């Protein structure tokens, strides 16, 4: 992390630090860096959430990697909402939602899979669908009682 401290000193750039691994002992160093935000992989290391939020500076955003970018399975959005609702209440617009990592590990669009068994297909989520999950999750955190959001969550639970 020493190189991170020396990168672009005083440029005024708004940079975010993405660590696709657990922060562990590097958390205080990461939080002290002159970055606008931190991205954390909450799929692989959900236990780090409380420590990251507690140490976040008032001028930093948290990019919460809650949609698994490494597999093809749908996200349990109810579990994600339960985890993130108190954080959203605390951070407001400083909470950003993201995949846990790049979506390069998953196929692009489930709509292209025309010969899959319907039940199996209902369990899957490719890159396009994962971005739709992120959108629905964000709308659910912003307005959980919206009928459109509730309808989307019901459809998501069917699988």
Strand content: 5-15%
DSSP helix fraction: 40-55%
Termini separation comes to 42 Å
Rounded mean pLDDT score: 88
Main sheet: strands, sense, barrel: 4 strands, parallel
Number of helices: 7
Radius of gyration (CA) equals 17 Å
Strand order of the largest sheet: 1-2-3-4
The general outline is globular
Structural class category: alpha/beta
Low-pLDDT sequence parts: 3-8
Order of helices and strands: HEHEHEHEHHH
Overall number of strands: 4
Domain Cobalamin-independent methionine synthase MetE N-terminal: 24-91
Protein name: Cobalamin-independent methionine synthase MetE N-terminal domain-containing protein
InterPro entries: Cbl-indep_Met_Synth_N, UROD/MetE-like_sf
Organism: Rhizopus delemar
What labels would you give this structure?
single chain; 159 residues; alpha/beta; 4-stranded parallel sheet; 7 helices; 42% helix; 13% strand; globular
Describe the structure.
The protein is α/β, with parallel strands linked by helices and 159 residues long. The chain has seven helices and four strands. A four-stranded parallel sheet has the order 1-2-3-4. Helix 4 crosses helix 6 (127-142). The longest helix has 16 residues, at 127-142. The chain is globular, with a radius of gyration of 17 Å. The model is unreliable at 3-8 (pLDDT under 50). It holds the Pfam family Meth_synt_1.
Question: In terms of topology, how is this protein built?
Answer:
Layout: H1 2-6, E1 16-19, H2 27-32, E2 37-41, H3 49-55, E3 61-67, H4 77-91, E4 95-99, H5 118-123, H6 127-142, H7 147-157
Parallel strand pairs: 1-2, 2-3, 3-4
Helix pairs in contact: 4-6
């Amino acid at each position: 992390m020493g190189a991170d401290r020396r990168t672009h000193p005083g440029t005024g750039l708004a940079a975010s630090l993405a660590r696709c691994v657990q922060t562990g002992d590097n958390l205080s160093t990461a939080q002290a860096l002159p970055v606008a935000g931190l991205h954390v992989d909450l799929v692989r290391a959900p236990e780090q959430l409380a420590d990251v939020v507690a140490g976040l500076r008032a001028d930093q955003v948290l990019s919460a990697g809650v949609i698994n970018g490494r597999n093809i399975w749908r996200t349990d959005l109810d579990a994600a909402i339960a985890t993130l609702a108190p954080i959203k209440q605390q951070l407001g617009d400083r909470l950003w939602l993201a995949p846990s990592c790049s979506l390069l590990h998953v196929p692009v669009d489930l709509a292209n899979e025309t010969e899959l068994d319907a039940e199996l297909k209902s369990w899957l989520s490719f890159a396009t669908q994962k971005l739709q999950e992120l959108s629905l999750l964000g709308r659910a955190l912003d307005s959980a009682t919206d009928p459109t959001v509730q309808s989307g969550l019901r459809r998501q639970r069917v699988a």
